[in-house]
Amino acid sequence: MTKTARIKEATRMFYEFVEQNGFIADDEGFGYWMVAKQGSTRADEMFQVNRGDFDVCTHLCECEEALEFAKGLEVEMENVKRMMEL
Q1: d(Cα 34, Cα 49) in Å, to the nearest integer?
Q2: What are the pLDDT digits (tens) for 2-55?
Q3: 68 bridge partner residues
Q4: pTM given for the model
């Protein structure tokens, strides 16, 4: 499997994990996704995930539910990166 194919599969797994947990990921087009609970529009309930290396950034997020999900997502994506050898 090529590196491009592995990244594509990791991205698919990212979207799947996010959606299964009741969140949405919006591609802002600036190198990161904005992740928030479905239906949420408040900026303090969102966090960012870097598209290049799947790093989670929660420094502006104040929502406890989103922060807990971000921790779980970070662990999940670390496992995916190891599995895909990224």
Answers
A1: 7
A2: 999 999 999 999 999 999 999 999 997 889 999 999 988 899 999 999 998 999
A3: none
A4: 0.91
